[in-house]
Amino acid sequence: MKIKQVFDGVFKTIFWLWNLTFLSIVYLGILPIIGVPLIMATIEGTIPLEFSLTMAATIAVPTVCTVIGAGRFGKQPLQLMRWFYGVEAPLFLLCLLRLFLLRELTPASSQIIATIALCIAAFSVEMLYGYLGKRENVQNIFDSQNSHNKQPRFFRLIGEKRSAWLQLGCHSLMVVVGIWAATLLIYYAVPVALYTLYGFFTVVIEFFKFTWVSAFWDMFRYGAWAWALIWLPLSFILFGLTCSLFVVMPSLYGFLYIHSGRKIWQSFAAQYGKNKALIGSLGVIAAWLAIFSALQQQPQVAALKMLATPPANDTVRQTLLAKSDMIRSGLVNAYLSPYRYLSTVGENNHIYEMYKNSLNLPDGAAKTLQNSYNFLMSPFLYQGSSADVEKAEKLYGEFFDTELQKGDTEAVKHAVQSTSNQEEAKAGLLNVSEEKVWLQSQEVTVKENGDWADVQLYEVYKNQTPNLQEVFYYFSLPESAAVTGVWLGDTGDLNKRFVFTVSPRGAAQQVYNQQVVERVDPALLEQIGPKQYRLRAFPIPAKREFIQTEGPTEMHLWLTYKVMRQPQGWAMPVLAEKRNIFWNQNTRRTIAGKDVKYSGKEARETWLPPFLPAVAQQALTAQQALLPGGNIISAKPLADANYSLPQGKKFAVILDTSRSMAAESKEVKETFEWLKANEAGKNTVDLYVASAAGMPPKFVEDVRNFDATKVTFYGTIQLKDMLQQFAQLRGDKSYDTVFLVSDRHSYELSDDRKLKLSISSPLWTVHLGGLPPGYDDATLKAIQDSGGGVATDMKEAMQRVATTAASGESTVSVVDGYAWSYAKIPQSKKTAKSAAVAEPKNAGNEGFKPIAARQLITALSKQKSSNQLTQLDAMHAVAKNFKVVTPYSSMIVLVNDAQREQLKAAEAKSDRFDREVESGKEQLSKPNNPLNVSGVPEPEEWLLLTVGAIGLLAVFLRQRRAKMVG
After folding, report:
1. Is the pLDDT of residue 964 over 70?
2. What is the mean pLDDT of the chain?
3. Could you tell me which residue, 41 or 284, shows the higher pLDDT?
4. How confident is the model at residue 212 (pLDDT cuts 50, 70, 90)?
5. Residues with Cβ < 8 Å from 850, sequence gap 6 or more?
């Protein structure tokens, strides 16, 4: 009797001491420090609801279990232990793992977590209600007592027979889970037991060495005495109890679940017979194992294998295209493996380190233990290497012809959200989300000047995050437009805004990126195509979540440009892509003096209207500007009758067969049908079919022999590679013009390679479906230097080529309804008479000169020069003089002298015009690998580590609280 009383006392002590200690830490520490911010982040949409629910469960489990334990098993110490080790401890541990360790669940890990939760629920039902079958078949007094308890409504609704079968299935799985979990916990229980004993004596020794006093004193010095006197003892008590829990939990947990499963099986067999009980149990276990085995097949293994070698023919390509969903699943799984798995199999070494280096186990034995552990943990381990992340991203781009973050945005977004760490989720989510900065207001003003106008775009941005952010725009303007300014300001005061500097494109980019790293205000406006621009502004002031301090709360940006009048009116910037910024129905918009209100989908998707109607509708007239150096630029308006199509010419057409072109297959067919019907008979048209890696490109001597419906669009090909393939196939053939038929190719997949060929014929890129965001500089140089251009359909390109040729050799371009021509007055022939003739034409036309300067730069780019840097400097001098953005000159906004000195130094370098490709893609924050360790602390270090960790936490919380209060 005395022994029983002793055990009863021990059981009650363990239950109540552990629960009371934990409840103190939960309600005084975890809830206010982690729980409240987590709930706020869930309300904001930063973190999924499931994590807040898991946090609530983590707090509720010991609370509810303590209440049930006191009410139902307070006088039954043995049942109190069963309740603690069979329900509370594993359920609480499961919640902690889900909250702090497991991120995005895979099908395999979801099966394990769901099965464990089901078994815990089944064990709790068995403890509270006993066997759910007939009352007369209960096996012992305790079951008899429980069987008289009122069953839950669900079980009464489905009936005793179904309840019994359901309970048999769950308890059959309980045996499997009990064995699996107990075996897994033993890996930790053995070293924990040894370390607990060894560490206890070591801590006692270290305690009397007083090496911990300095850390303890720092806690008092920083005002954290409450932590030193309260949390430190509580933490040590909790640590000791948890260690003891882990030591006995594997054997006790396994015993409880196996015993419970056996007891329910015997009760069921007594009621329905052993055969049915055996068939039911084995059937459930077999079905579970079959599902487990199927879910163990991680999709990246097959995907990486299929794409290991480029396909050598169309049949293989079509086979791979048919398996696109499987390949996509595998590559995305590999890319997101740090978010979906605890570790890779190869990097999981903590069991080996623990037994080899800490317990001096032989190397072979430690490896065997690690391998067996990996087998048990296989649902949570990635079958591959960490290098698969970059490999999968590269293969995804090569196969799907788009950047992975763009192609599977939702999958990436969900993965980086799957964390209970609010700051970590914000860093990850905001890398792929566009809703960081809200466009608070937008104002467009137009000042008409006859055939051209000055347009100003003024926007105000409000940051919606607690971090500094960057606004990122890709947009296009008419090819003849001239961007004349960009400014930044903390307020709307025009006198206090920061002005721009026109700088060589490479120098401007270098300084901008450096200033963003240093978190200082810059803005950068670049031209990255004949019509395409990129605008970036940083930093948008962070949102103030808790306190109000002095400083800017918003950013103001002004953008100005000059544009020629077209039949539709004045062209507005056309958005190609935006990053970080968003707008909605609450955005205030004023367009040409009128308030504009959008609603619903239109409010979220509309940046600007495509055109604003011109107030004056007089007939277009010719314009001319005399620029420094005797350069004359003329603009002659064209009527529809002035446009023509080419005849008697020899053309080369290069067809892009990248994967993304499949979406434009209808336009491809229509384009080649138009060529055959209108141009092939009047001109010689040869076709070059480009090809991704694995298959060679093809030459079709007459485009009329080509069937566009039989093309297999596969992989990715950069424009530079298509031109390289064309150069290899054409041999010594010469053409009047080269047309490259592509789509809105992925600018993000471009690189900085130089083009290793010279194209003497004008190069025109025809982008079906719309213009791309931009080009890399090598491709842009090939288009500009050759005298080519860009268009969105073949007819437009052909008309511009023919009309330019018909307009005379002095014609620079035919664009936006005008023929632009260039002439230079020889210095020796520049007489007073010629000057007198030229000057009146420029009187009152100063505002047109920036537009003319853009055309002058286009003309200069076509001139051949032995010294490329000298030519670039000459074009930049024109841009700087007239303050315009060009493909070679960018605008950068600087706010202090240090930035200006950096820009001056960058402009003096020989690579001042070398610009890198920037996709705007941000690196995702990857979680640490919890199962990879470089070493295990020695036992005598644990005391200092614990005291130091608690001290740092105390100081951090004190500083955080002080910041919140202000």
Report:
1. no
2. 84
3. 284
4. low
5. 482, 484, 562, 882, 883, 884
Cis preceding-peptide flag for 107 (omega within 30 of 0) = no
Q: Are the C-beta atoms of residues 231 and 224 closer than 8 Å to each other?
A: no
pLDDT tens by residue, 616-664 = 888 899 999 999 989 999 999 999 999 999 999 999 999 999 999 999 9
Residue 504 has phi, psi (to 5 degrees) of -55, 140
| Predicted pLDDT at 428 | 35
CA atoms of 316 and 313, how far apart (whole Å):
6
Q: What is the DSSP letter of 677?
A: I
Closest CA to 530 of 869, 314, 882, 797: 797
Interhelix angle 849-861/777-786, nearest 10 degrees: 90
**Looking at the predicted structure, is the pLDDT value of residue 147 above 50?**
no
Q: Where are the beta strands (DSSP E) in 777-883?
A: 789-791, 811-815, 818-824
Are 129 and 166 in contact by the 8 Å Cβ rule? The answer is no
Q: Cα separation of 1 and 8, whole Å?
A: 10
Residue 78 scores a pLDDT above 50:
yes
Give me the amino acid identity at 63.
Answer: T
Q: Which tokens belong to 942?
A: 């644990």
Please give the order of strands across the beta sheet that includes 532-540: 500-504, 889-893, 523-527, 532-540, 469-476, 574-579
Helix ranges restricted to H, 687-793? 719-730, 777-786
pLDDT, tens digit, for every residue of 756-782? 887 889 999 999 999 999 999 999 999
pLDDT in tens, 506-533: 999 999 988 877 666 689 999 999 999 9
Tokens of residue 442, six digits: 């937008």
The string over 215-253, giving b where at least 16 C-beta atoms fall within 10 Å of a residue's C-beta and e elsewhere, is: bbebbeeeebeebbeebbebbbbbebbbbebbbebbebb
57: nearest Cα among 103, 94, 109: 94
Helix (H), strand (E) at residue 765: strand 763-767
Per DSSP, the residues of 238-256 read HHHHHHHHHHHHHHHHHHH
Amino acid found at 883: K
The number of angstroms, rounded, from the C-alpha of 766 to the middle of its chain's C-alpha atoms is 30
Distance from the first to the final alpha carbon of the chain: 63
Q: Which residues contact 488 (CB under 8 A, 6 or more apart)?
A: 497, 498, 521, 523, 537, 555, 556, 557, 893, 895
Contact of 648 with 683, CB cutoff 8 Å: yes
CA distance 679 to 699: 18
CB 395 within 8 A of CB 323: no
Per-residue CA distances from 616 to 131, 455, 636, 638 (Å): 89, 15, 19, 19
Q: What is the mean pLDDT of residues 329-333?
A: 96
What global pTM score does this model have?
0.81
